[in-house]
Amino acid sequence: MTETRMRAVLGIDVGATWTRALLVDRDGRVLDRVKVRTSDNPLRDIAERVAGWNFDAVGIGSIGPLDLRSGWVEGTPNAPSRRFPLVEPLRRFGKPIVAANDCVAAVWGEHVFRYAGIRNMVYVTVSTGVGAGAIINGTLLLGKDGNAHELGHAVIDFRARRRCRCGGRGHLEAFVGGANICDVYREVAGESVREPAEIFERYRRGIEAAERFVDLWLDALAAGLATVAAAYDPELMIIGGAVALGNWDLLSRELPRRLREYLSVREPAIVRASFGDDEVAVGAAALAYKTPESLQEFGYPRL
To answer: Same domain for 80 and 164?
Structure first.
C-alpha cells in the first residue's frame, strides 16, 4: 500500500513501563488511543485492545536492543521481559508492519511531521532509560541490527563502579535514567526516595541534598548530550521522555550553558519534543506512512 492511499495507521510505542497505541492520520493527528502497562508480551496485549480499530498499516517504536531482521527485542534491561516479539503478534491484522527503535521512530516523526527541511537532527529521550535516534545528511541511521543509537550506554565515567542495568559500568543511563535516579540520589544525598519526581520536587523547595544531586545529574546529562553531539554533529537536538519533559523548565534553563563546557562541535539548537508523551507512537506512525530506505533494507514493511 502506498503512502498516498493510507488514511490512518496504528502507531505503537513500546516502553519499559507503558505501551501506547495511537490511531494517527496522515497529518500526525491522533484519532484514538489506548495505553497498557508493559508486560512480557506487550504487542499481544495491544493487538487485543485495538482489534476493532480501522487502520491501513502498523508502525512500532520500541525499547531496545533490537534484532530488526527477526522482529524481536533482544536483551532489553528495563522491561518485564528481556526478550519479546514485535512483529509476530500483529500479523493477525494482515497489514504492513514497520518496526524500529523508539528513538529512531521519534526522530523520524519529527522529520516527517515537523522538521522536514532539517537534514541533520537527533532525538534524545530521558525516561526510564536513555536513548537517541539520528538523521544524518537526510539518512535515518540504523546500524547492522538496528541499534546504532544506544547512546544511553555511552561511557561517561570509565572509572565509575556504578553499573547500568545492562551490566556495563559508567554508562550515561546509569546516572541519569529514571530507573537509576533514586539509587544515585541515595548515594549522593544519603537518603531514600521512591520516585524521581520526589527528588525534583525537593529541589524546587530548595532542599540542599536535592540541589546537590540535581547539579550532578545535570552535569552528567550534559556530558552525555555532548557525546551525542560529537557522534552525530546535528543542527537540531530534540529532547523528550518523561523525566526530561516533566522538568523542562530546569533543562531549558541549564542545559545549553552546561553543554558548552563539554562540546567539541558547533552547538546544536535544543528544543522540546513536539508530541509530548505521544512522541514515539506518532513517530512510529510516520515510519508506516513514509518508510525510510534504510529500514526497507531490513525487509520492512512486512505482512
So the answer is: no
The H or E element spanning position 121 is strand 121-126
- Asked whether residue 122 falls in the same domain as residue 267, the answer is yes
Domain span holding position 33 = 3-101+278-296
Helix (H) / strand (E) element for 197: namely helix 196-204
With cut-offs at 50, 70 and 90, classify the pLDDT of residue 69: very high
pTM of the predicted model, to two decimals? Answer: 0.91
pLDDT for residue 1? 35
> Is the omega angle on the peptide bond into residue 196 within 30 degrees of 0, that is, cis?
no
Q: Report the chain's C-alpha Rg in angstroms.
A: 19
Structural domains counted in the chain:
2
| Phi, psi (rounded to 5 degrees) for 212 | -65, -40
Residues 6+ apart with CB under 8 A from 95: 10, 55, 56, 57, 58, 303
